[in-house]
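Dear H.,

Thanks for agreeing to be a second pair of eyes. The structure we're designing against is below in token form, covering all 250 positions.
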């Protein structure tokens, strides 16, 4: 079993108006096999939390720590973090012109495991994963995310999740912009990775609808750069009914 710990995390970003503190003391502990939902209004710092764990250079950790099985994640480069088992599905996946999906996946897998996957099983694995996610086989030869629809980009993120088999996945609004069918396909992919690999999940979301398909063990309500309340799945139902108003006003 592995543990990802975020302890008293404070993060700033440089803006035109100067240094701005976005995260103001975040505490979250995720064990293998646990699904945590982080829910909160726009601008509360959810993506900043995701980027900070992933080691995005724009975000400066001024206080606190992030540990993966006791190892300092903040000391790791982005690829060291990936090798250690961290995975980030971005809210806005970037286009990579000139790099095909098949090349990208194989290169990523090789980098994460330290050796090129055996071609025959790899091709079979990719085909199966693409089939599960209803991604057409012609996508293999397309450039990563170039001209992909919003839903196709999100499914491509989950394709990586299924093939790279990380220990912890941070999913930043992977549900946003999906229609009901795509939401179901994406959720099934996350549930497969969770079940097959004992994946720990930090699922950032603005809406409760994905929680009908992916059952969280813990829900953290995120407001103004901090966890305002924690609970179980029932907390999501309460948010569904009441929204974030009472936290924002408080
Ligand atoms: P969320 O994902 O919860 O909507 P974000 O983490 O994206 O929130 O943003 C939190 C706050 O920090 C927002 O007010 C946003 O404008 C600000 N912020 C985030 N990243 C940057 C950045 N790179 N430069 C300036 N402001 C930023
Ligand atoms: Mg965001």
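And this is the sequence the design step returned. I haven't edited it by hand at all.
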């Amino acid at each position: 079993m592995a543990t990802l710990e975020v302890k008293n995390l404070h993060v700033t970003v440089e803006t035109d108006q100067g240094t701005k503190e976005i995260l103001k003391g975040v505490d979250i502990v995720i064990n293998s096999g646990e699904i945590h939902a982080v829910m909160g209004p726009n601008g509360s710092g959810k993506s900043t939390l995701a980027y900070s764990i992933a080691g995005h250079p724009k975000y400066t950790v001024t206080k606190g720590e992030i540990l993966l099985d006791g190892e300092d994640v903040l000391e790791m480069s982005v690829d060291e973090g990936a090798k250690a088992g961290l995975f980030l599905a971005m809210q806005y996946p970037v286009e990579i012109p000139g790099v095909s999906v098949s090349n990208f996946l194989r290169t990523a897998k090789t980098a994460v495991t330290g050796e090129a996957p055996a071609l025959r099983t790899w091709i079979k694995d990719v085909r199966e994963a693409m089939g599960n996610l209803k991604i057409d086989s012609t996508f293999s030869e397309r450039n990563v995310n170039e001209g992909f629809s919003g839903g196709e980009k999100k499914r491509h993120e989950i394709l990586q999740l299924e093939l790279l088999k990380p220990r912890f996945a941070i999913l930043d609004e992977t549900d946003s912009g999906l229609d009901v069918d795509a939401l179901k396909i994406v959720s099934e992919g996350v549930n497969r990775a969770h079940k097959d690999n004992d994946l720990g999940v930090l699922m950032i979301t603005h809406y409760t609808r994905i929680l009908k398909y992916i059952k969280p063990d813990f829900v953290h309500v995120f407001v103004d750069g901090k966890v305002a309340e924690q609970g179980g799945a029932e907390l999501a139902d309460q948010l569904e009914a009441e929204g974030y108003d009472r936290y924002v006003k408080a």
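Two observations from my side: The two ends are 38 Å apart (CA to CA). DSSP finds eight helices and twelve strands in the chain.

Warmly,
E.
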